[in-house]
Amino acid sequence: MLTITDLVKEYPTGLRALHGVSLTVDKPQVVAIIGPSGAGKSTLIRCVNRLVEPTSGSIALDGVDITKLGRGALRKARRRMGMIFQEYNLVERLTVMENLLSGRLGYVGFWRSFRRKYPAADVQAAYALLDRVGLKGYENTRADSISGGQRQRVGIGRALMQQPDLLLVDEPTASLDPKTSRQIMRIIVELAHERGTPTLLNIHDVPLAQNYADRVIGLAAGRIVFDGGPDELNETVLTEIYGEEDWSTTVGGGDDDGDDDRPGGSDDLEKAAAAG
Ligand code: ADP
What we know:
Blueprint: E1 2-10, E2 16-25, E3 30-34, H1 41-48, E4 56-61, E5 64-65, H2 71-79, E6 81-84, H3 96-101, H4 105-108, H5 110-114, H6 120-132, H7 148-161, E7 166-170, H8 178-195, E8 199-202, H9 206-212, E9 215-220, E10 223-228, H10 235-242, H11 266-275
Parallel strand pairs: 3-8, 3-9, 6-7, 7-8
Antiparallel strand pairs: 1-2, 1-4, 4-5, 9-10
Helix pairs in contact: 6-7, 7-8
Adenosine-5'-diphosphate (ADP) binds next to helix 1.
């Protein structure tokens, strides 16, 4: 499915954000990339669809090297990669339904989308997804009049409208409160599993990664220092990824029963511990 080999990214400033990263996602699993701020998580995710141009190395999606594609071929390859952003990236003045349908833009052609004439099958799929992400009844609501959590639900729906072969998720909960963050993570993971879509997800929140990911990759200063199951994240591993810290409130503490969503409750403390 996805094979990244010796990926290097050096920004024009001379800063080397990725030092030869190699990883393979060969089954439909949710892979969380964790690590401290500046570790290169976002750079890694964005190299995959070339929102950031890799310096060297290869990124093969089903055998096709994304790094070698010209503009037209890259545009086609990007249709197969859905992306969910931290800041949602919705078209604010359009409705929820129009934002969802914009996920089909790469497929329906400019004029058809300009005239907002989407195929009936797309509209049907959009209504089904609207329901699935918990926004039934919001189809005609403008994107700028809903909450952050609801916007992210639209972002998830839009990415899945592409019927992607790979889902790239860049800090989906960074702008959300702890309870909404868990709801959003749950929706992403459930949909990825339901559809069998391999997912690469950048998240700085350790308990969220522990609770929801199938596999966790720890990135530190542009290098992979851990690759394993969420249950293998112990204090030693976390220290290797994040440096010295008191992990006692984080490791194994990420309960998800929704019982402690009060501001300042234990879930907030876990988050604070994870953020350092
Ligand atoms: P993370 O997502 O783990 O916080 P990033 O991938 O955003 O890390 O950043 C990795 C490193 O690359 C950081 O040192 C950051 O300052 C640097 N960086 C990110 N984007 C750019 C850019 N456009 N130009 C120069 N340096 C950048």
